[in-house]
Amino acid sequence: MKTPERRKAERVKLSLKASWEGILEQQEGEVTDLSTTGCFILTAHQVQRGELIRIEIGESLAIWGEVVYEIEEMGFALRFNAVGEDRERLAQLIEDAKKARKKSR
To answer: Domains along the chain?
Structure first.
């Protein structure tokens, strides 16, 4: 049985290189799921639930988020704290990813 979707924002599956930094380390990872409210980052490095993370996606977007959950040796999910211009840039990145996906089909 499928569990009901709790997310309110539309998500897009993609593969974007990203760098992130938390309290203890600065690392790289891959964003594999993105919405205007959050993302999932593939990385083997550990974070703590509730930790504030700054993530840079591409060259123009740097955004803060809170770790919602983490899967050891796999990655973690962030809930963004984006407002204003950051949220607009995030929405544009998602639209660009959707268009690129349609073209590749």
So the answer is: 12-104 (2.40.10.220)
